[in-house]
Design a protein that fits this description.
72 residues, alpha+beta, 1 helix
Length: 72
Amino acid sequence: MNAHDRDFTASDLARLHYGDADFAILKPGRYVLCAVTGQKIALEHLRYWSPELQEAYAGPAESLQRWQETHR
């Protein structure tokens, strides 16, 4: 198995602290879960997150959806 395989296991779940421009790895792993869809996001593909809510998003649509839910 290498970094390009997508057959993740539960032990591959990372825990991160999300900052404004980057994130810090608190528990090593290969992926995080999207807070909106539950989709697994490989760390190398993680581009969207909320430092305020400390959660990750699969893409811009999920990020916008969460922002709209929390800023009404």
